[in-house]
Write a structure and sequence with these properties.
By secondary structure, this protein is of the alpha+beta class. Helices cover 35% and strands 37% of the residues. It is built from six helices and eight strands, in the order βαββαβαβαββααβ. The longest helix is centred in the middle third of the chain and has 21 residues, at 124-144.
Length: 226
């Protein structure tokens, strides 16, 4: 699959909770995926919201038929580890799957971050709009310069399965950078965001971030890609 997901605007997102390392649960899930999907299995330390915990996520990208096939297989497996399964829309402009150059070569070296976002329903339209007019173009400008390896965004989950009382985030972000990219990214991120935030009439990155703090709850975790 190319760096830009031009063929499909949806992704499958599965969430797992295990008492031990989630590697086995993720490998079982990966084995159920059709061959024509791009699959990103991510393990991270336990996240918690309320009484619920989870420590792994899997993102699959491909055609609608392949995603439907994958979801059917996951549901039929009746895995004790599966906590949540959803089809999510790819956010407009946030579809940078691989680094612009040598993406597959850089992938094993990337530090991965998973963001689970719970936006306030009354603020959702404005928060999403800010993703499109500020976050997406700012990160794409850094991606075009080779300073971001991956930036994927998903929204509007269409739940296929959820364990009782399991958290329901409405945005998921996956960000990947090599250590070298991160060193070059950090001094440039403010200027990139300021440029597009000001163009959209949102002020500066600092003003945008302050508003986001009121509009959303964010759980951001460093993840390990299997």
């Amino acid at each position: 699959m190319s760096a830009s997901l031009t063929s499909n605007r949806r992704g499958l997102h599965a969430t797992f909770s295990t008492a031990a390392k989630p590697d086995a649960a993720l490998r079982e899930a990966v084995a159920l995926m059709p061959d024509d999907l791009s699959v990103l299995p991510m393990a991270h330390r336990p996240a918690k919201r309320g009484d619920r915990r989870w420590n792994a996520t899997l993102i699959a990208l491909g055609t609608d038929d392949a995603l439907d096939h994958a979801s059917d297989r996951l549901l039929a497996s009746q895995s004790d580890y599966l906590m949540r399964l959803a089809i999510m829309d790819v956010q407009e402009g946030i579809d940078m799957l691989y680094a612009k150059s040598d993406g597959l070569t850089l992938e094993p070296r990337m530090i991965q971050f998973v963001e689970y976002v719970f936006s306030q329903p009354a603020e959702r339209d404005d928060y999403y709009a800010c993703q499109y007019d500020t976050s997406a173009p700012a990160m794409r400008s850094l991606w075009e310069k080779g300073l971001v390896g991956r930036f994927l965004g998903f929204e509007n989950p269409q739940l296929l399965y959820s364990a009782t009382d399991f958290p329901n985030w409405d945005v998921l972000h996956l960000i990947g950078m090599t250590p070298w990219q991160m060193l070059r990214f950090m001094p440039r991120v403010n200027a990139a965001f300021d440029q597009f935030a000001e163009k959209a009439g949102r002020g500066t990155r600092r003003a945008v971030a302050k508003k986001w703090d009121r509009q959303r709850e964010l759980i951001k975790l460093t993840a390990r890609q299997l």
